[in-house]
Amino acid sequence: MALIGTDIDLAQSFLKNGQLVGIPTETVYGLAGNALNPESVALIFETKNRPTFDPLILHTSSFERVGEFVSDFPEELKQLAKKFWPGPLTLLLPRKPIVPDLVTSGLNRVAVRVPNHPLTLTLLEQLEFPLAAPSANPFGYISPTQAAHVEAQLGEKIPYILDGGPCAVGLESTIVGMEDEEIVIYRLGGLEIGEIEDVVGPVKVKDHSSSNPAAPGQLDSHYAPRKPFLLGDLKTLIAKKQAEGFDFAVLSFSDAFVQMPQEKQIALSPSRDLHEAAQNLFSAMRKLDETPVQVILAELMPETGLGRAINDRLRRAAVKG
Ligand code: TXA
Ligand code: MG
User: Is the pTM of this model over 0.70?
Assistant: First the structure.
């Protein structure tokens, strides 16, 4: 079992010692280690059971400190950083040699972000090194949005979890970089495309590359519950599973199903608010995965704003194999 608390000094001492700590961010909880210490970085991959071809995000406390790790910062990306940091934006920038190969999986760019959570920002300000932090879940499983989620899956393997409460955004950061002169989104996330386009104009979305590690977290099957997860029109799916005699649970955007037991259904946002739906998504998927049913039935959100990123996660959860 990990200790869980709000002691920044204690978190700091574990990190300085090369150990890993669960940290809160506004998006999801991270599994953090000293990004400049290859042994700590290796421990992250091992603890998560993550393949080393899937690189990590480097977290730092301010825009000003990014220069320590990157050799170039294109003007357009600077504008995004100034507008959205601290926040759910990760930028791919050419790395300096100080960044260990293992952090970037040998790629020329390093992913950098300034997370927006008071505890973690204070921790990062106090540390002399940046933190490498993937989401604090075993590879391929649903990302954690509460300290208890981290404890449930990695508690045996790490000494401390910094408890910052439930994550305000609930979806991972949006990953952005440049190819030639073009701005590219590699992972849809907590920062909406529209907000990015308001600052830099039209962008290209390149978020689906199956098993290609050039844009990794984009492995098709990801964010996945252990139970079969079926996406479609809920009324049709429910009728079908009932007829087939399956025991199922339902994840809806806003609808309640009066004829079904309360504990076998979750509506992400009864008022149809996509921010609220994003906040609730991963904990709802976890809860239903732990409910004793054979299959989870779910529906897509409207494809607007955060709905696009939510739907991306739902589709990946539904892919098997
Ligand atoms: O919101 C977030 O981004 C959370 C919190 C903890 O900050 N972190 C997170 O990390 O989601 P992770 O490791 O679960 O996902 C990071 C994604 C991976 O898909 C990885 O492949 C991609 O970022 N990535 C990291 N470095 C990259 C690089 N140099 N080039 C391309 N993709 C990269
Ligand atoms: Mg992840």
Answer: yes
